[in-house]
Amino acid sequence: MGSHPREKFATQVDGEILATVREIARSEGRQLQALVDEALADLVEKRRRTKPRTHVMAAYQASHERFAELYRKLAE
Question: pTM higher than 0.85, yes or no?
Answer without folding.
Answer: no
